[in-house]
Amino acid sequence: MRIVVLTGAGVSAESGLGTFRDRDGLWSRYAIEDVATPDAYARDPALVHDFYNMRRREAAQARSNAAHHALARLQQSTQHEVTLVTQNVDALHEAAGATPLHMHGQLDQALCAACAHRWPAPMEMSPETPCPSCGGATARPDVVWFGEMPYALDAIDAALTSPDLFAAIGTSGQVYPAAGFVDVAAASGAETIELNLEPTSTRFDDHRLGRATEVVPAWVGSLVQ
After folding, report:
1. Which H/E stretch holds residue 107?
2. What is the CA radius of gyration of the chain?
3. Residue range 44-61, pLDDT digits in tens
4. Helical (H) or strand (E) element with 221
């Protein structure tokens, strides 16, 4: 079976990493326009770096949970062909043994805004952090900000052309293009399922509601013998 799985912040929430759109989420404490746009970086790079330094420290302390491990088991299974796409910028899928496509980039990577060189990010970055390739003080987090094009869209689009099953796990369903993946998969003939604390859309054929560490292992157990 060809399976495409999309994961969002809800998968990492039980590892202690905050979600974004809940009442106490990151966007209730930080304004998007202050820390997560190209204009914000141009206006106040120190503030943007401080925000991502904080997130990088939190992510480094987090550990993969049962949902991450279950999805790694699914991807490693020889019974299915699994494309794992994540909106998350942490490395918890990799720590569990999975190989995801990071459509919104990665906290542990740095990007030169001048020459586009990428390298492993130090724990602390600042406007003075030099690019190891061109030497410019133009280092930024290698994350996709609002208004920027997500990564790996060609690979994701290819996977969505012919899946048998599409699953969205722990994602709000509010951020495009990821929110539209269910429609693309359904138009390709896939069955669709949402695993989340509560349903976000009626566009899915099925819903499994509950904590990710409970519903994801149970769902994977139904697919992998």
Report:
1. strand 105-112
2. 18
3. 999 999 999 999 999 999
4. helix 212-223
Q: How far apart are CA 145 and CA 95, in angstroms?
A: 24
Closest by CA to 127, choosing from 115, 110, 140, is 140
- DSSP per-residue letters across 109-159: EEEETTT--EEEPPSS--TTPPPTTT--S-EEEEEPPTTSPPS-HHHHHHH
Active site residue 104: yes
Largest distance between two CA atoms of the chain: 53
Taking only the tens place, the pLDDT of each residue in 69-118 is 999 999 999 999 999 999 999 999 999 999 999 999 999 999 999 999 99
Distance CA 61, CA 100 (A): 20
- Strand ordering across the sheet containing 105-112: 118-120, 105-112, 139-143
Alpha carbons 169 and 207: distance in angstroms, whole number: 10
User: Is the predicted pLDDT of residue 220 greater than 70, yes or no?
Assistant: yes
Which pLDDT value is given to residue 20? Answer: 59
The number of C-alpha atoms within 13 Å of 27 and in the hemisphere containing its C-beta is 9
- Active-site annotation holder among 69, 93, 102, 104: 104
Tracing tokens 């796990």 back to the chain, one arrives at 169
Handedness of CA 90, 93, 98, 103 (dihedral sign): negative
Question: Which DSSP string corresponds to 48-72?
Answer: HHHHHHHHHHHHHH----HHHHHHH
Structure tokens of 18? 């905050």
**180-191 b/e with 16+ CB inside 10 Å = b?**
ebbebbbebebb
Q: Map tokens 């406007």 to a residue.
A: 127
